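Predicting holo structure, manganese (II) ion bound.
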Amino acid sequence: MAHLHTAAHTSLRGWLRHLAASDRLAAIRPGVALEHELAAIAKRLDGRQAALFPHPGGHPMPVISGFMSRRAWIAEAMGVPEARLLQHFRAAAEKPLAWREVDPAAAPVQQIVHRFAGGAADIRALLPVPTHSEHDHGAYITAGLVIARNPRTGVQNVSINRIQIHGPDRLGILILPRHLHAFFAAAEAQDEALEVAIAIGVDPLTALASQAIAPIDCDELEIAGALHGQPLPVVKCLTNQVRVPAEAEIVIEGRLLPRVREPEGPFGEFPKYYSAREEREVIAIDAVTHRRDPVFHTIVPAEMEHLLLGAIPREATLLAHLQRSFPNVTDVHLTVGGVARYHLVVQLRKTREGQAKNVMLGAFAGHYDVKQVIVVDEDVDIHDANEVEWAVATRFQADRDLVVIAGAQGSALDPSTTVGFAGNKPSPEWQGYGAKMGLDATKPLASAEHVFTRVRIPGERDVDLAQAVAATGAAALVGTPLQAE
Ligand SMILES: [Mn+2]
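Done. Tokens:
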């Protein structure tokens, strides 16, 4: 189905109705178990249909999963052709649109309020939080947009962090050394808590915007506004100063506690391995607000929704980064097999010999997670793994076209970087220490006639199979089995 420049989908419920109308939303039988069964069903439908779970574990609040599990769906939510996905995201990230604050009365997310003071509420009873993978410590919020304010400037940051349910009013959280980490470090240095809000159940474009690789003083909700083509309506939390999407399904209001660490994990992460149980930051819950009939969103870890949410903003950033030095880089793709983080394919309109190696060095510098770069020519479809392998098979020689850089910074979640630490976990400054590999799979600019001419059958692309295939059955032409000798 072709969806050319239509309006962007700015509401989660509108998007779910749109998926339902095109047979992309499966209604699951009521009452599946929150522990493993829900995630198992969502995983089996991953990339084919989103799944809506009524009464999961008997809970009145339904769970939704997998509504962003194809690249084409995300382009459709943006209202652009798939080929324009990265440029469109990049344009929004470069030109954010300030949000618009609305009154609580105009904010669906504050229709129902649960205050937690004095043990008045229990998060475990309020929300249907699934347990996903086999060795996960327990129930995890995996699709929560964590919003916090820079303690110095008040500018907000948005990130998705994994959040473990610790107790009735307590959450554990993994905070990687990025923007939220910097805000909390500043608050903690003053012995102060950091106010946070966790928005669960937002529209696809707001979720995608939260993953933008943006400067620390950029509020990702403004990128959401740019993707929507209109300012995002936000509302002030009831117990703190954080502004949250007014149209969200659910918001948890709370505080990151200074000088408090509690065990969090293990948890099955995007590389399809577990990350270990360690002492990590803790959030105390002050309130939960939600719509009258909320839907709880869960992302099944390491599946397509998780991978694409990370991949598209990274691809957009890497493409912009490369094109600043190499305007003849035409496209990039973080492959699914490379966990949408580690393996990058770059498409290049090569103009000089050796250029592919410069491009791969630029890509390694673009993001430390990038571990392998394959550079191919413009005729190779970088979204087709067979095409990329064909280019490596026929245009690459390891002694000439391979670049290996030893001892560089990589992803701390890549288990192969722990080998050689004799059973001990590497200390933080050695985590992710590993090698980079680049493959120049471009053909030479000059070669003898037909050496690198790709086989093509004239007219192949123009064949109209509906016209070419005869209406009469083939059996009449070849005889039936009974007539055969
Ligand atoms: Mn940020």
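The pocket of manganese (II) ion is lined by residues 157, 179, 214, 220 (CB under 6 Å).
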